[in-house]
C-alpha cells in the first residue's frame, strides 16, 4: 500500500474534517479541484485528491484553521489527526509512527492471511505440500518485509532524536559559557566605573589645589609658588597656617554683617542643617535661591556614578521634586564638569538653572561667587566643609548634601 493510502487511513478524521470545512465554505471560496469533494458527503476520496487536500492543509494556515474548527465541531478524539492539525510539538513524529504502525498492522494482517491460506493448504493433503512450502516462504518474506519497513521508518527517527539530544547538550554548554562571559563583562564594567570615579576625583582634587593656589596668589602671598610637588605641599601648609586666623576673623565679621539684614533665619532654631527637616523648612520661602553642589550630591547618592553623565541627568530630573516643594524659590545646580559642545549654562523646562564650570574653574568658586552675589537670600547645599565656610562668610545659609539626598 502506498504512503498516500496509508495517510488516508491514518489521517482519516482530519480528512473528514477538511471535507466538512469545504462544505461550510462559500462556493466562491472552494478551489476548483475540491468542489467535487465539497458536494459529496460520503465515499472515499481518490488518492491524488487526498495528497492535494493534505498539501492545502499544510500550506494554507487559514484553511487549516477552518479544518481545526470543523474537527472540534465533529468531536473527533483521534490523537494523530489532532497533533497533525494543531501542529503540536513533534507532530510529524506522531504521524510517522502512526504510518509505521499502520504498515506493521498491514504486514501482520498479511501474515495472518498467509497463515490462513497455509492452514487451508495443509487440509488439502500431501498434494498441496509443495504449495504450502511456497506459502511458508511467502510468510517469511512478508515478515522480513514488515520488519524492514518498521526499521526503515524508525531508524531515521531514532537518529533525529539522538541528534536533538546532542544539540540540547551543546546549547546548555554554550549557555553556561555565555553566562560566565557576561559576568566577566559586568566585572570589567564595574572596574572601569571605579577607575573612572578615581580619575575624576583626582582631577577635581587637582583643580581644587590649582584654585587654592590662585586664591592665595591673588591675596598677596609673600613668596613665589614652588614647582615641585613636595615643595608645593609644604608651601600650602605654611599658607594655611598663616591665613587661618585672618579667615576666622573675617568670617565672624562678614557673617554677622550678612545676617543682620535678614528678618529671620531661613532654618528655624533646633533644625539640624544635615536633616531632612532642613529641606522641609525651605518650603514657601519664595525670595530664596538654592545653590546645589551637583557632584557633591551625586557622591552622597552613589559615589560610583559621579563621572556618569546619565547620573547627572537623573539628578537634574529628580530636582524637579525639590522645585515643586520650594514653590517660587529659584534653584541653580553647579557641576564641576564642562560639556563637549561648549555650553556653560542651561535651563530646564521647570526653570532649574544648570551650570557647568569651564576647564580651569572649579564648582566651589562658582558657588562662592553666587553666594556672594545673593547674600542672605542664598541657601548652599554641599558636604564640603570648606565650601560651606566660604559661602557662610557672605551671609548664605549652608545645608549638608546628605540632607538633600535623604529628602530626595
Describe the overall structure.
This protein is 67% helix and 6% strand. By secondary structure, it is of the alpha/beta class. The chain folds into 2 domains: 3-160, no CATH class; 266-407, Rossmann fold (3-Layer(aba) Sandwich), CATH 3.40.50. The chain has a 6-stranded mixed sheet with strand order 3-4-2-1-5-6, with helices on both faces. β3 and β4 (353-356) form a beta hairpin. The radius of gyration is 45 Å and the shape is elongated. The model is unreliable at 244-263 (pLDDT under 50).
Brief summary of the model shown:
67% of the residues lie in helices and 6% in strands. It has 408 residues and is of the alpha/beta class.
Helix-strand blueprint:
Blueprint: H1 3-10, H2 12-24, H3 35-39, H4 47-59, H5 61-74, H6 79-86, H7 91-123, H8 129-218, H9 229-260, H10 276-280, E1 289-293, H11 294-302, H12 309-326, E2 330-335, E3 345-347, E4 353-356, H13 363-374, E5 378-381, H14 385-392, E6 397-399, H15 401-407
Parallel strand pairs: 1-2, 1-5, 2-4, 5-6
Antiparallel strand pairs: 3-4
Helix pairs in contact: 1-4, 1-7, 2-5, 4-5, 6-7, 7-8, 11-15, 13-14
